[in-house]
Model the fold of this input.
Amino acid sequence: MRMEQFVRINAPAAAAASRALTQLAHRPAEIKLTHAEFVELSAEPASFDREEVVDGIYFAISGGLEGAALLCFPEQKAFDLSAILLGKASVRSAKLSELGESALMEVGNIICGNYLTELSNVLRLKVVPGVPHFARGMFGSMLEQVVARSSADPQTALLIDVELDLPAGSLLGHLLLYFKTGPLIDA
Amino acid sequence: MERELKMAEIIVTADPDDVVTAVGVGSCLLISLYDRRLRIGGLAHAVLPSPLAEDGRRDTRYVEPAIKMTMERMGALGARIASMEAKLVGGANMFPGLDDEVGAGNVSEARAALDRLGVPVVAEAVGGSIGRSVEFSVASGYVIVRTKL
Done:
């Protein structure tokens, strides 16, 4: 698939994810999947500092395609997002509460699940995300583990900017999709 | 000079002005090797414990080939195994809920390989669920480990 085909998936996936997030948050919420680019996993994606502390949600991808997805939000934005979803004031602390982590994982399910559903429709293959796993730490260290679990070969991944518009404000995160099947991404 | 090491790479140097860095290391393993006598240093950034397939390639993505190639390059600069010592950094599991043995496997593979090769492991900062960044000074042999908690 070429970049323009991936970009075409963004709009319907974002619309479906927005509806689901609106239901979850009990308030109007809009998800936009905006800028998308191919990045070399061996290099440093331009949007991230490898030492930046992020909250990450990892999914194995299985079915007709195997790979992995990593949804990341900068630390403070993740606090804000979980607070919005839980209807609380955002308080910065050493770590998110278990409930906060669950809320972020649910956002991950919504975004990643809807993107893979649209991708499945285009490819006519069933591609499904696995159970979400949460981590807080340096972006580079999470990226390494995704690469190591997916394959030993650092290859090309798809990096999509994720914008969440909620009544309390906007948040920007990133979705990184990596597929073992090399020819899927035709850079 | 600061030299950045990326995944699956090796840097070997005898330049005392060199500081080799690696940023945001998770399940991967950094293996520093240092000849204290001649102040020759090597840093390897291995990704996986062992090759998925026995294809005979000497691939620095894997722990043991990475260690052996680092030692060979240091040997070419005059380093001797008898003067070498090793330090290990990394081998974390960033996702605590995930049953992932890659990080722990990297550490145990490195310990076993270094033992077989006769190089003592003199320090470790391994495991847990934290990312680590490293600065390896060729002049002193010190490995400075930085993390964000």
Residues 5 and 20 of chain B are 7 Å apart (CA to CA). The interface with chain A takes residues 6-8, 23-28, 47-48, 51-52, 59, 61-62, 92-98, 100, 102-103, 129-133, 147-149 of chain B (CB under 8 Å).
